[in-house]
Specification:
single chain; alpha+beta; 5-stranded mixed beta barrel; 8 helices
């Protein structure tokens, strides 16, 4: 009976039967009703990463473009600045060369004076123009050591730059020569020595020397003589380099050649001889002929006392030659620089 107490000694009541699968089934159902949310952010991250990457690339490209544009603008500006400086330097150099050319012209005239005074010759007297030399030495060197340092030569042609530095070197060599000239001419003692040497050189320049042959045993020997060559007469034909042709008296007359006077001392007794120009029969008639001595090649022997003046004149002639070359370069340089001087900055 329901609610009645169990009888003592009776078998215990069987436990109610439980379906083991029922609980499992319920659990399964409960488990199957759960909802699991799985958030996959890979797509989001990839998109964000893509956007970030694109942003970084755009920033880099922007920076690169900025740098390129800035470099281009800066490079253009730099070129314009360099061009302006080059034109300005060209104008300055042109003005400097014009200024220097005036001093060089003055030096040219002084050198010309000194050369003419030293020339001597027939009817002239060789002298030293000490005044001209002193004025040359007094001229201030027109170019400084750093005259063209740190200049920009982009506006200059290659030939103009070459001429510029040739001119610079030529002018400085001229002024070095003036310094050498000063060392050889300054002081009263040098003045006196040069005057004496000039007188000796003048005598050498105005005197002709010759040589005659004499028998010395079995050998022929030459002797130096003073030579006087008479001026050629009008209408007289002289053909010293041609041998006479034909026969008879006409041929003999032509074979005689030019008549000269020789003497063993200056102002002494003179003897007539024939100037040798390649005639036949020298071995048999050597005593009839006279030879001209080359004074230029023999000046050291003929005029020992004239050597000092000869060195002075040699220096002058070298300066004159260098001046001629420098003036040529100066003309080319001014012509090449004039278009640069006309440019606008």
């Amino acid at each position: 009976m329901p609610g009645a107490a169990p009888h003592p000694g009776a078998a215990p009541a069987a436990a109610p039967r439980v379906d083991p699968f029922a609980a499992a089934s319920a659990n399964t159902v409960a488990a199957s009703k759960r909802v699991t949310l799985v958030i996959d952010d890979s797509a989001v991250k990839s998109d964000e990463i893509g956007r970030k990457s694109r942003a970084v690339v755009l920033v880099i490209v922007g920076l690169a473009l900025g740098v390129a544009v800035g470099f281009g603008v800066g490079n253009t500006t730099d070129k314009r600045t360099q061009y302006k400086i080059a034109v300005r330097d060209g104008k300055d150099i042109y003005a400097k060369v014009q200024e220097v050319s005036k001093t060089v012209e003055t030096a040219k005239e002084l050198i010309k004076r000194a050369v003419e005074a030293s020339s001597g010759g027939p009817g002239k007297k060789a002298t030293v123009d000490f005044e001209a030399v002193d004025q040359l030495v007094a001229l201030k060197r027109p170019f400084s050591a750093n005259e063209f340092h740190r200049r920009i030569y982009r506006a200059f042609g290659d030939g103009v730059v070459d001429n510029l530095f040739d001119y610079y070197n030529g002018v400085n060599l001229l002024w070095d020569g003036f310094t050498t000239m000063q060392a050889r001419t300054s002081g009263q003692a040098r003045h006196d020595a040069l005057n004496k040497s000039a007188a000796a050189a003048d005598g050498l320049l105005n005197t002709d020397y010759g040589m005659v042959l004499n028998k010395n045993g079995d050998q022929l020997a030459g002797a130096l003589v003073f030579l006087t060559i008479p001026p050629a007469k009008a209408g007289e034909e002289a053909a010293p380099d041609k041998k006479a042709k034909g026969k008879g008296k006409k041929a003999e007359k032509a074979d005689e050649g030019i008549k000269v006077k020789v003497s063993s001392s200056q102002g002494g007794q003179e003897v007539e001889r024939t100037l040798y120009t390649g005639q036949d029969g020298l071995a048999e008639g050597y005593e009839k002929y006279a030879f001209i001595v080359d004074k230029v090649r023999s000046r050291t022997i003929l005029g020992e006392s004239a050597n000092l003046f000869s060195k002075y004149r040699g220096d002058l002639m070298e300066l004159d030659s260098r001046m001629t070359k420098t003036m040529e370069v100066q003309g080319q340089l001014l012509k090449g620089l004039s278009p640069i001087a006309a440019m606008s900055e």
